[in-house]
Amino acid sequence: MAVLLFINYVDRGNLATAAHLMQGDLHLDYAQMGLLLSAFSWTYAWTQIPVGWLAERYGAHRMLAAGLTLWATATLFIGFAHTFTALLVLRLLLGLGESAGFPGVAKILSAIVPAKGLGTANGIIALGYLTGPVVGTIVGGLLMAQFGWRSAFWVFGALSLLWLLPWSRVAGQVRAAVRTGSEDLPTWWMILKQPSLWGTSLGLFSSNYVFYFMLSWLPSYLQTERGFSIVGMAWLATSAYLVNALSAFAAGWAIDRFLGRGGSANAGYKTVMAVAHLGSVACMLAMALGSPATALASLFIYQALCGASSPGVYAMSEILAGPRASGRWVGIQNSLGNTPGIIAPWLTGYIIQSTGHYTNAFVVAAAVSVLGLVGWVGMVPKLGELQWKFAARAGG
After folding, report:
1. In the 8-state DSSP scheme, what is residue 115?
2. 79 with 151: CB under 8 angstroms?
3. How far is CA 391 from CA 56, 108, 185, 388, 394, in A?
4. Alpha-carbon gap, residue 301 to 278, rounded angstroms
5. Could you give the CA distance from residue 325 to residue 116 in angstroms, rounded to a whole number?
6. Which residue from 53, 56, 139, 248 could staple onto 327, CB 3.0 to 4.6 Å apart?
7. Closest residue by Cα to residue 164 from 74, 43, 61
8. pTM for the predicted model, two decimal places
9. DSSP assignment of 39-81, as one string?
10. pLDDT tens digits, residue range 40-68?
């Protein structure tokens, strides 16, 4: 599953790495590029809810395989596109396929991993998907510099399909493990009326606005605002993404160590979330207003904070929802929490087009990051599996 989400993030980030070259080759302005970057999330965000239900109804293992097949094919064909319309359609298909990732993974993890191991498990998963931009940016950047931007989409799309081979060998074991019994499942209404669902959704919305802003525009920012070449950009962005990935794994392990020594999940996860969001506000403002050296230091600090918060994004939801509702819970959370993927790339492109600089875009990201404190800390009650209340049945 970590490899699956690694591929997920490699394929979704290709367009950001290629953006500068594609604009020149296909004569796209910043507003059009912003639309293409955000189009992925139009389908990715709004199909999470039905995908979460399908994962619980027909099997998360099947949804993960079907999703990868669709998004890898879309990635491959982006390399053949020559028009804005074709790119737009393929980005929509990419988002549709990738929507299967997190609801399916959350469903499986909540069924097979105990609560005191979810930090490490989600840290491993986060190491996978946060390493995606590391490899995607450096390998994609080198491929594009040597063979043109289309080559990266052909190579990554074809290689992605190879994941289906090892997954076919373990899918049967996954299916058996996730069948936890025939106990009652919470209804949609029982899930939707939980304040903690809306808290985790708001928290993810805040986290993802800054994440998508950075994922979509960091390569272009480093080249146009800070003067790096495409190869220099690739190495710098890669280093920042690597810090993010390693921080995620370390934080997940550290939280589980804290729990193993008698600490509470509530204190462990919420403290990390609070520090990460407060630090992100400072980093965005420093990147907007600071000197080049301050901006680069803030970039790496932000990536470390973002990585540290990653295990909690899904571990908190898996703890709250439990194995009976985690697929739908994460589907709803991801649907609402990924709408910044629609907003942030487009709004950033509009701001840059209007002002000629990235400064105001970083200020907006800092303001949105404050909302994460409200969601993760203020709206989520004491962390623990919710007790679903079912109506009594005749005969007991």
Report:
1. G
2. yes
3. 21, 27, 12, 10, 10
4. 12
5. 18
6. 56
7. 61
8. 0.77
9. HHHHHHHHTHHHHHHHHHHH-HHHHHHHHHHHHHHHHHHHTT-
10. 888 888 888 888 888 877 888 889 999 99
